[in-house]
Write a structure and sequence with these properties.
Blueprint lengths: L4 E5 L3 H12 L3 E6 L10 E2 L7 E2 L5 E2 L3 H9 L6 E2 L6 E5 L4 E5 L18 H11 L7 H5 L3 H15 L8 H11 L7 E4 L3 H15 L3 E4 L5 E5 L2 E6 L4 E3 L5 E5 L2 H7 L9 E10 L7 E6 L5 E4 L3 E6 L10 H18 L12 E11 L17 E4 L10 H17 L20
Parallel strand pairs: 1-2, 1-14, 2-10, 7-16, 14-20
Antiparallel strand pairs: 3-4, 5-9, 6-9, 7-8, 11-12, 12-13, 15-18, 15-19, 16-17, 17-18
The structure holds flavin-adenine dinucleotide (FAD).
InterPro entries: Amino_oxidase, FAD/NAD-bd_sf, Zeta_carotene_desat/Oxidored
Pfam family, one: Amino_oxidase
Protein name: NAD(P)-binding protein
Protein backbone atom coordinates (compact mmCIF):
# COMPACT_ATOMS: atom_id res chain seq x y z
CA UNK A 1 0.00 0.00 0.00
CA UNK A 2 1.38 3.46 -0.88
CA UNK A 3 1.19 6.15 1.76
CA UNK A 4 -0.94 9.17 1.06
CA UNK A 5 0.53 12.42 2.26
CA UNK A 6 -0.98 15.89 2.04
CA UNK A 7 1.61 18.61 1.45
CA UNK A 8 0.27 21.95 2.64
CA UNK A 9 2.04 25.11 1.53
CA UNK A 10 1.50 28.11 3.82
CA UNK A 11 1.05 27.84 7.60
CA UNK A 12 -1.36 30.73 8.06
CA UNK A 13 -4.83 30.03 9.44
CA UNK A 14 -5.99 28.35 6.21
CA UNK A 15 -2.97 26.02 6.10
CA UNK A 16 -3.26 25.15 9.79
CA UNK A 17 -6.98 24.51 9.39
CA UNK A 18 -6.36 22.25 6.37
CA UNK A 19 -3.69 20.33 8.29
CA UNK A 20 -6.01 19.88 11.28
CA UNK A 21 -8.72 18.56 8.98
CA UNK A 22 -6.32 16.15 7.23
CA UNK A 23 -4.89 14.79 10.49
CA UNK A 24 -8.21 14.57 12.32
CA UNK A 25 -8.75 10.97 11.19
CA UNK A 26 -5.11 9.97 11.14
CA UNK A 27 -4.15 11.43 7.75
CA UNK A 28 -0.54 12.46 7.15
CA UNK A 29 0.27 16.14 6.66
CA UNK A 30 3.42 18.16 6.06
CA UNK A 31 3.30 21.98 6.19
CA UNK A 32 5.83 24.19 4.41
CA UNK A 33 5.99 27.80 5.55
CA UNK A 34 8.21 30.47 3.98
CA UNK A 35 8.49 32.59 7.13
CA UNK A 36 10.45 31.52 10.22
CA UNK A 37 7.14 31.01 12.07
CA UNK A 38 3.57 29.89 11.47
CA UNK A 39 0.57 32.25 11.59
CA UNK A 40 0.87 34.37 8.45
CA UNK A 41 -1.16 37.56 8.81
CA UNK A 42 -2.37 36.48 12.24
CA UNK A 43 0.62 36.41 14.57
CA UNK A 44 2.46 38.00 17.50
CA UNK A 45 5.60 40.03 16.76
CA UNK A 46 8.50 39.99 19.20
CA UNK A 47 10.97 42.67 18.08
CA UNK A 48 14.41 42.38 19.66
CA UNK A 49 14.60 44.83 22.54
CA UNK A 50 10.98 45.88 22.03
CA UNK A 51 7.67 44.71 23.46
CA UNK A 52 5.64 41.81 22.10
CA UNK A 53 2.37 42.66 20.34
CA UNK A 54 0.18 41.16 17.67
CA UNK A 55 0.76 42.36 14.11
CA UNK A 56 -2.74 43.80 14.43
CA UNK A 57 -5.71 43.20 16.70
CA UNK A 58 -7.89 40.31 15.54
CA UNK A 59 -11.42 39.86 16.81
CA UNK A 60 -13.78 36.94 16.42
CA UNK A 61 -17.52 36.88 16.91
CA UNK A 62 -19.54 34.11 18.51
CA UNK A 63 -21.05 33.84 15.01
CA UNK A 64 -17.73 32.48 13.71
CA UNK A 65 -18.60 28.83 14.27
CA UNK A 66 -15.73 27.25 12.32
CA UNK A 67 -13.07 29.45 13.90
CA UNK A 68 -14.41 28.72 17.40
CA UNK A 69 -14.52 25.03 16.61
CA UNK A 70 -10.86 25.16 15.54
CA UNK A 71 -10.01 26.88 18.83
CA UNK A 72 -11.80 24.10 20.67
CA UNK A 73 -9.94 21.42 18.70
CA UNK A 74 -6.58 22.90 19.68
CA UNK A 75 -7.62 23.45 23.31
CA UNK A 76 -7.61 27.26 23.08
CA UNK A 77 -11.30 28.19 23.17
CA UNK A 78 -11.10 29.41 26.77
CA UNK A 79 -8.28 31.79 25.85
CA UNK A 80 -10.68 33.92 23.80
CA UNK A 81 -13.08 35.97 25.81
CA UNK A 82 -15.53 38.83 25.55
CA UNK A 83 -13.88 42.05 26.75
CA UNK A 84 -17.06 44.16 26.63
CA UNK A 85 -20.10 42.05 27.59
CA UNK A 86 -22.12 45.20 28.41
CA UNK A 87 -21.87 46.53 24.83
CA UNK A 88 -18.99 48.14 23.00
CA UNK A 89 -17.69 51.46 24.45
CA UNK A 90 -17.61 53.94 21.56
CA UNK A 91 -15.69 57.16 22.03
CA UNK A 92 -16.88 60.07 19.90
CA UNK A 93 -13.67 62.06 19.43
CA UNK A 94 -15.54 65.16 18.21
CA UNK A 95 -17.84 65.39 21.22
CA UNK A 96 -15.33 63.89 23.68
CA UNK A 97 -17.97 61.47 24.92
CA UNK A 98 -18.09 57.75 25.51
CA UNK A 99 -21.24 55.63 25.19
CA UNK A 100 -21.96 51.95 24.82
CA UNK A 101 -23.41 50.37 21.70
CA UNK A 102 -24.82 46.87 21.42
CA UNK A 103 -23.43 44.85 18.53
CA UNK A 104 -26.53 42.72 18.26
CA UNK A 105 -29.70 44.44 16.99
CA UNK A 106 -31.57 42.67 19.80
CA UNK A 107 -29.69 44.79 22.30
CA UNK A 108 -31.00 47.96 20.59
CA UNK A 109 -34.30 47.37 22.33
CA UNK A 110 -32.51 49.10 25.22
CA UNK A 111 -32.22 52.82 24.29
CA UNK A 112 -28.86 53.03 26.09
CA UNK A 113 -27.35 50.42 23.69
CA UNK A 114 -28.62 51.93 20.43
CA UNK A 115 -26.19 53.36 17.85
CA UNK A 116 -26.29 57.14 17.88
CA UNK A 117 -28.81 58.63 15.44
CA UNK A 118 -30.65 55.35 14.79
CA UNK A 119 -34.15 56.22 13.58
CA UNK A 120 -37.10 54.06 12.59
CA UNK A 121 -36.41 54.80 8.90
CA UNK A 122 -32.92 53.33 9.29
CA UNK A 123 -34.26 49.93 10.26
CA UNK A 124 -35.70 49.48 6.76
CA UNK A 125 -32.33 50.40 5.20
CA UNK A 126 -30.49 48.04 7.53
CA UNK A 127 -32.90 45.24 6.58
CA UNK A 128 -32.30 45.98 2.88
CA UNK A 129 -28.59 45.68 3.57
CA UNK A 130 -28.92 42.44 5.54
CA UNK A 131 -30.91 40.84 2.70
CA UNK A 132 -29.09 42.55 -0.19
CA UNK A 133 -29.88 40.45 -3.24
CA UNK A 134 -28.08 42.60 -5.82
CA UNK A 135 -24.46 43.67 -5.69
CA UNK A 136 -23.94 47.34 -4.86
CA UNK A 137 -21.79 49.42 -2.49
CA UNK A 138 -22.91 49.44 1.15
CA UNK A 139 -23.15 53.26 1.08
CA UNK A 140 -25.68 53.20 -1.76
CA UNK A 141 -28.14 51.35 0.49
CA UNK A 142 -27.61 53.31 3.72
CA UNK A 143 -27.06 56.80 2.28
CA UNK A 144 -25.84 59.80 4.26
CA UNK A 145 -27.59 58.97 7.52
CA UNK A 146 -26.16 59.56 11.01
CA UNK A 147 -25.91 55.77 11.48
CA UNK A 148 -23.36 55.66 8.66
CA UNK A 149 -20.91 57.32 11.06
CA UNK A 150 -21.99 55.64 14.25
CA UNK A 151 -22.54 52.06 13.03
CA UNK A 152 -22.30 51.19 9.33
CA UNK A 153 -18.89 52.61 8.47
CA UNK A 154 -17.11 51.15 11.55
CA UNK A 155 -18.80 47.79 10.93
CA UNK A 156 -18.02 47.76 7.20
CA UNK A 157 -14.33 48.57 7.53
CA UNK A 158 -13.98 46.15 10.44
CA UNK A 159 -15.59 43.26 8.55
CA UNK A 160 -14.59 43.97 4.93
CA UNK A 161 -11.54 46.23 5.31
CA UNK A 162 -13.01 48.29 2.47
CA UNK A 163 -14.72 51.71 2.72
CA UNK A 164 -18.55 51.68 2.50
CA UNK A 165 -18.45 53.77 -0.69
CA UNK A 166 -16.90 50.71 -2.42
CA UNK A 167 -17.59 47.76 -0.13
CA UNK A 168 -19.73 44.88 -1.33
CA UNK A 169 -23.20 44.94 0.24
CA UNK A 170 -23.58 41.22 -0.47
CA UNK A 171 -20.40 40.23 1.35
CA UNK A 172 -21.31 42.38 4.33
CA UNK A 173 -24.81 40.90 4.24
CA UNK A 174 -23.36 37.37 4.57
CA UNK A 175 -21.66 38.43 7.80
CA UNK A 176 -24.64 40.41 9.09
CA UNK A 177 -27.03 37.50 8.61
CA UNK A 178 -24.75 35.46 10.88
CA UNK A 179 -24.28 38.26 13.39
CA UNK A 180 -27.97 39.00 13.95
CA UNK A 181 -28.73 35.48 15.16
CA UNK A 182 -29.43 35.47 18.88
CA UNK A 183 -26.18 34.98 20.80
CA UNK A 184 -24.00 35.41 17.71
CA UNK A 185 -22.92 39.04 18.11
CA UNK A 186 -20.48 38.71 21.03
CA UNK A 187 -17.04 40.09 20.20
CA UNK A 188 -14.09 38.00 21.37
CA UNK A 189 -10.36 38.74 21.62
CA UNK A 190 -7.34 36.63 22.51
CA UNK A 191 -6.44 37.08 26.16
CA UNK A 192 -2.66 37.25 25.68
CA UNK A 193 -1.92 37.32 21.97
CA UNK A 194 -2.53 35.61 18.64
CA UNK A 195 0.50 33.33 18.72
CA UNK A 196 0.04 32.19 22.32
CA UNK A 197 -3.74 31.82 22.10
CA UNK A 198 -4.18 30.42 18.59
CA UNK A 199 -1.13 29.68 16.45
CA UNK A 200 1.05 27.88 19.01
CA UNK A 201 -1.77 25.60 20.24
CA UNK A 202 -2.62 24.75 16.60
CA UNK A 203 1.00 23.89 15.78
CA UNK A 204 1.34 21.87 19.02
CA UNK A 205 -1.83 19.90 18.18
CA UNK A 206 -0.54 19.16 14.68
CA UNK A 207 2.84 18.01 15.98
CA UNK A 208 1.12 15.78 18.55
CA UNK A 209 -0.77 14.21 15.64
CA UNK A 210 2.51 13.50 13.86
CA UNK A 211 2.36 16.32 11.32
CA UNK A 212 5.58 18.11 10.31
CA UNK A 213 5.59 21.93 10.31
CA UNK A 214 8.65 23.06 8.36
CA UNK A 215 9.42 26.78 8.52
CA UNK A 216 11.81 28.71 6.28
CA UNK A 217 10.56 26.65 3.33
CA UNK A 218 9.29 28.87 0.53
CA UNK A 219 7.66 27.11 -2.40
CA UNK A 220 9.58 28.46 -5.38
CA UNK A 221 7.92 26.40 -8.08
CA UNK A 222 5.38 23.64 -8.60
CA UNK A 223 6.52 20.73 -10.75
CA UNK A 224 3.50 19.73 -12.82
CA UNK A 225 2.97 16.91 -15.32
CA UNK A 226 -0.23 15.63 -16.89
CA UNK A 227 -2.49 17.89 -14.90
CA UNK A 228 -1.14 16.98 -11.49
CA UNK A 229 1.61 18.15 -9.17
CA UNK A 230 4.60 15.82 -9.10
CA UNK A 231 6.98 17.87 -7.02
CA UNK A 232 7.54 20.97 -4.90
CA UNK A 233 10.67 23.05 -5.44
CA UNK A 234 11.22 24.61 -2.00
CA UNK A 235 13.86 26.96 -0.58
CA UNK A 236 16.52 24.31 -0.04
CA UNK A 237 15.05 21.07 -1.32
CA UNK A 238 12.84 19.49 -3.94
CA UNK A 239 10.14 17.22 -2.60
CA UNK A 240 8.82 14.66 -5.08
CA UNK A 241 5.29 13.45 -4.54
CA UNK A 242 4.10 9.88 -4.25
CA UNK A 243 1.33 8.66 -6.57
CA UNK A 244 -1.37 9.27 -3.96
CA UNK A 245 0.04 12.50 -2.55
CA UNK A 246 -1.95 15.72 -2.58
CA UNK A 247 -1.10 19.40 -2.31
CA UNK A 248 -2.97 22.28 -0.73
CA UNK A 249 -1.79 25.78 -1.57
CA UNK A 250 -2.91 27.86 1.42
CA UNK A 251 -1.43 31.06 0.08
CA UNK A 252 -2.43 34.64 -0.69
CA UNK A 253 -3.74 35.18 -4.24
CA UNK A 254 -0.58 36.87 -5.54
CA UNK A 255 1.47 33.77 -4.63
CA UNK A 256 -1.07 31.48 -6.28
CA UNK A 257 -0.90 33.66 -9.41
CA UNK A 258 2.91 33.42 -9.44
CA UNK A 259 2.85 29.63 -9.10
CA UNK A 260 -0.13 28.98 -11.41
CA UNK A 261 -0.19 31.97 -13.80
CA UNK A 262 -3.20 30.66 -15.78
CA UNK A 263 -5.51 31.12 -12.82
CA UNK A 264 -7.45 34.29 -12.40
CA UNK A 265 -7.33 35.61 -8.81
CA UNK A 266 -8.18 38.85 -6.97
CA UNK A 267 -5.47 41.43 -7.57
CA UNK A 268 -6.51 44.41 -5.46
CA UNK A 269 -5.78 44.70 -1.76
CA UNK A 270 -6.50 46.99 1.17
CA UNK A 271 -4.01 47.97 3.88
CA UNK A 272 -4.45 48.00 7.65
CA UNK A 273 -2.28 50.24 9.82
CA UNK A 274 -1.70 49.16 13.41
CA UNK A 275 -0.14 51.34 16.07
CA UNK A 276 1.05 49.81 19.36
CA UNK A 277 1.83 51.94 22.42
CA UNK A 278 3.86 50.43 25.25
CA UNK A 279 2.26 51.48 28.52
CA UNK A 280 0.77 50.14 31.71
CA UNK A 281 -2.62 48.81 30.62
CA UNK A 282 -5.16 46.58 32.32
CA UNK A 283 -4.96 42.99 33.59
CA UNK A 284 -8.28 42.24 31.92
CA UNK A 285 -8.19 43.50 28.31
CA UNK A 286 -10.70 46.14 27.22
CA UNK A 287 -11.84 47.08 23.74
CA UNK A 288 -12.88 50.61 22.73
CA UNK A 289 -14.21 51.87 19.40
CA UNK A 290 -13.79 55.40 18.02
CA UNK A 291 -15.87 57.61 15.78
CA UNK A 292 -14.78 60.95 14.34
CA UNK A 293 -11.11 59.91 14.54
CA UNK A 294 -8.44 58.22 12.46
CA UNK A 295 -8.25 55.52 15.16
CA UNK A 296 -11.03 52.96 14.79
CA UNK A 297 -10.46 50.41 17.58
CA UNK A 298 -8.16 50.17 20.58
CA UNK A 299 -7.40 46.95 22.43
CA UNK A 300 -6.00 47.59 25.89
CA UNK A 301 -3.78 44.76 27.12
CA UNK A 302 -1.63 44.40 30.26
CA UNK A 303 1.44 46.21 28.91
CA UNK A 304 0.35 47.91 25.70
CA UNK A 305 -2.51 49.44 23.75
CA UNK A 306 -3.02 48.44 20.10
CA UNK A 307 -4.91 50.71 17.70
CA UNK A 308 -6.33 49.59 14.37
CA UNK A 309 -6.96 51.68 11.24
CA UNK A 310 -8.58 49.46 8.59
CA UNK A 311 -9.16 50.41 4.94
CA UNK A 312 -6.11 52.58 5.50
CA UNK A 313 -5.35 53.61 1.92
CA UNK A 314 -5.30 57.28 2.87
CA UNK A 315 -2.66 56.90 5.61
CA UNK A 316 -0.57 53.84 4.76
CA UNK A 317 2.04 55.88 2.91
CA UNK A 318 2.14 58.73 5.41
CA UNK A 319 5.01 59.15 7.83
CA UNK A 320 4.57 56.52 10.57
CA UNK A 321 5.68 58.81 13.41
CA UNK A 322 3.18 61.49 12.39
CA UNK A 323 0.32 58.98 12.15
CA UNK A 324 1.21 57.51 15.56
CA UNK A 325 1.38 60.99 17.15
CA UNK A 326 -1.99 61.98 15.73
CA UNK A 327 -3.62 58.76 16.91
CA UNK A 328 -2.11 59.11 20.37
CA UNK A 329 -3.63 62.57 20.77
CA UNK A 330 -6.99 61.15 19.69
CA UNK A 331 -7.04 58.14 21.98
CA UNK A 332 -5.46 59.58 25.16
CA UNK A 333 -8.76 61.07 26.47
CA UNK A 334 -10.59 57.79 25.84
CA UNK A 335 -7.86 55.84 27.64
CA UNK A 336 -8.20 58.18 30.59
CA UNK A 337 -11.94 57.57 30.55
CA UNK A 338 -11.34 53.85 31.13
CA UNK A 339 -8.93 54.52 33.98
CA UNK A 340 -5.48 54.62 32.37
CA UNK A 341 -2.82 57.25 32.88
CA UNK A 342 -2.52 58.83 29.44
CA UNK A 343 -1.61 62.39 28.58
CA UNK A 344 -1.92 63.66 24.99
CA UNK A 345 1.51 65.34 25.41
CA UNK A 346 3.40 62.28 26.60
CA UNK A 347 3.35 59.63 23.92
CA UNK A 348 4.80 56.31 25.07
CA UNK A 349 7.18 54.08 23.11
CA UNK A 350 5.41 53.27 19.86
CA UNK A 351 5.56 50.69 17.10
CA UNK A 352 3.72 51.03 13.79
CA UNK A 353 2.94 47.96 11.68
CA UNK A 354 1.69 48.57 8.15
CA UNK A 355 0.14 45.55 6.46
CA UNK A 356 -0.10 46.79 2.89
CA UNK A 357 -1.95 43.73 1.62
CA UNK A 358 -3.90 43.01 4.81
CA UNK A 359 -6.86 41.58 2.87
CA UNK A 360 -8.22 41.59 -0.65
CA UNK A 361 -10.32 44.63 -1.51
CA UNK A 362 -13.91 43.45 -1.12
CA UNK A 363 -15.60 45.86 -3.46
CA UNK A 364 -19.07 45.61 -5.00
CA UNK A 365 -17.95 43.64 -8.04
CA UNK A 366 -17.51 40.00 -9.02
CA UNK A 367 -14.11 38.98 -7.69
CA UNK A 368 -12.17 36.45 -9.77
CA UNK A 369 -12.44 32.99 -8.18
CA UNK A 370 -10.34 30.13 -9.54
CA UNK A 371 -11.62 26.55 -9.24
CA UNK A 372 -10.88 25.13 -5.79
CA UNK A 373 -9.15 22.11 -7.41
CA UNK A 374 -7.33 23.50 -10.47
CA UNK A 375 -5.14 20.37 -10.78
CA UNK A 376 -6.09 16.77 -10.14
CA UNK A 377 -4.22 16.51 -6.83
CA UNK A 378 -4.05 20.19 -5.84
CA UNK A 379 -6.60 22.35 -4.03
CA UNK A 380 -6.51 26.00 -3.05
CA UNK A 381 -7.25 27.50 0.36
CA UNK A 382 -7.02 31.00 1.85
CA UNK A 383 -9.27 33.67 3.30
CA UNK A 384 -9.91 35.08 -0.19
CA UNK A 385 -11.59 31.92 -1.50
CA UNK A 386 -15.38 32.02 -1.56
CA UNK A 387 -17.92 34.75 -1.02
CA UNK A 388 -17.58 35.35 2.72
CA UNK A 389 -15.65 38.33 4.11
CA UNK A 390 -11.90 37.57 4.10
CA UNK A 391 -11.33 36.79 7.78
CA UNK A 392 -10.12 34.05 10.11
CA UNK A 393 -13.51 32.37 9.65
CA UNK A 394 -13.24 32.21 5.87
CA UNK A 395 -9.60 31.03 6.10
CA UNK A 396 -10.62 28.19 8.45
CA UNK A 397 -13.50 27.22 6.18
CA UNK A 398 -11.35 27.33 3.04
CA UNK A 399 -8.71 25.11 4.68
CA UNK A 400 -11.31 22.54 5.73
CA UNK A 401 -12.96 22.68 2.32
CA UNK A 402 -9.70 22.12 0.43
CA UNK A 403 -8.93 19.07 2.59
CA UNK A 404 -12.42 17.69 2.03
CA UNK A 405 -12.36 18.32 -1.76
CA UNK A 406 -9.11 16.36 -2.12
CA UNK A 407 -10.31 13.63 0.22
CA UNK A 408 -13.42 13.04 -1.86
CA UNK A 409 -11.87 13.63 -5.29
CA UNK A 410 -11.49 10.78 -7.70
CA UNK A 411 -8.49 10.65 -10.02
CA UNK A 412 -5.85 12.41 -7.94
CA UNK A 413 -3.51 9.43 -8.42
CA UNK A 414 -0.43 9.61 -10.68
CA UNK A 415 -0.42 7.52 -13.83
CA UNK A 416 3.13 7.99 -15.13
CA UNK A 417 5.98 6.28 -13.33
CA UNK A 418 8.52 8.56 -15.06
CA UNK A 419 7.04 11.42 -12.97
CA UNK A 420 9.15 10.05 -10.13
CA UNK A 421 12.40 10.23 -12.08
CA UNK A 422 13.30 13.80 -11.09
CA UNK A 423 15.95 14.30 -8.43
CA UNK A 424 14.21 14.02 -5.13
CA UNK A 425 14.59 14.64 -1.47
CA UNK A 426 11.72 13.59 0.70
CA UNK A 427 9.94 15.88 3.14
CA UNK A 428 9.75 15.43 6.89
C1 LIG B 1 -3.81 43.74 10.65
C2 LIG B 1 -4.85 42.71 10.36
C3 LIG B 1 -6.00 42.65 11.14
C4 LIG B 1 -6.95 41.68 10.89
N1 LIG B 1 -8.06 41.61 11.71
C5 LIG B 1 -8.88 40.55 11.60
C6 LIG B 1 -9.93 40.37 12.53
O1 LIG B 1 -10.14 41.19 13.43
N2 LIG B 1 -10.72 39.28 12.42
C7 LIG B 1 -10.53 38.35 11.43
O2 LIG B 1 -11.26 37.35 11.41
N3 LIG B 1 -9.56 38.51 10.50
C8 LIG B 1 -8.74 39.58 10.57
N4 LIG B 1 -7.72 39.74 9.66
C9 LIG B 1 -7.63 38.81 8.53
C10 LIG B 1 -6.94 37.53 8.91
O3 LIG B 1 -5.65 37.79 9.45
C11 LIG B 1 -6.76 36.70 7.64
O4 LIG B 1 -8.03 36.52 7.05
C12 LIG B 1 -6.15 35.33 7.89
O5 LIG B 1 -5.07 35.39 8.77
C13 LIG B 1 -5.72 34.78 6.53
O6 LIG B 1 -5.13 33.51 6.69
P1 LIG B 1 -4.59 32.74 5.42
O7 LIG B 1 -4.04 31.47 5.91
O8 LIG B 1 -5.66 32.69 4.38
O9 LIG B 1 -3.45 33.66 4.78
P2 LIG B 1 -2.04 34.09 5.36
O10 LIG B 1 -2.14 34.44 6.79
O11 LIG B 1 -1.53 35.15 4.43
O12 LIG B 1 -1.15 32.78 5.25
C14 LIG B 1 -0.39 32.47 4.13
C15 LIG B 1 0.92 31.87 4.60
O13 LIG B 1 1.66 31.43 3.46
C16 LIG B 1 3.02 31.80 3.62
N5 LIG B 1 3.60 31.85 2.27
C17 LIG B 1 3.43 32.81 1.33
N6 LIG B 1 4.07 32.46 0.19
C18 LIG B 1 4.62 31.24 0.43
C19 LIG B 1 5.38 30.33 -0.37
N7 LIG B 1 5.68 30.60 -1.64
N8 LIG B 1 5.82 29.19 0.19
C20 LIG B 1 5.51 28.87 1.50
N9 LIG B 1 4.79 29.69 2.28
C21 LIG B 1 4.35 30.85 1.76
C22 LIG B 1 2.95 33.13 4.34
O14 LIG B 1 4.19 33.42 4.99
C23 LIG B 1 1.81 32.89 5.30
O15 LIG B 1 2.25 32.34 6.52
C24 LIG B 1 -6.77 40.74 9.83
C25 LIG B 1 -5.63 40.82 9.03
C26 LIG B 1 -4.67 41.78 9.30
C27 LIG B 1 -3.44 41.82 8.44
Amino acid sequence: MTSRRTHIVGAGIAGLSAALAVTEDGGEAVLYEAAPHAGGRCRTLQPAGGFAHDNGTHVLFTANGRALSLLKTVGARERWFEPEPQGLPLYDARAGQMRRVGLSPWSWLLPSRRPQGLALADLARILRLVFASKECPVASIIGKRPIMDSLIEPLTVAVLNTPPSQASAQRLACALRQLIRPGAGHLLVARNGLSEDLIEPAVATLRARGAAVLTGQRLRMLLVANGRVIGLALSDRTVMLGPDDRVILALPPYEVERLLPDLSVPTRFEPIVNVHYRMRGLERPRFVGFTGALAQWALIRRDHVSVTVSAADAVVDQDSAAVAARIWREIAPALRAVGLEASPDRQPETRVVKEKRATIRQAAEALPQPPVRPLANLALAGDWIGSLPATIESAVMAGEHAASVLHHARGTRATLSKDRALKTEDAA
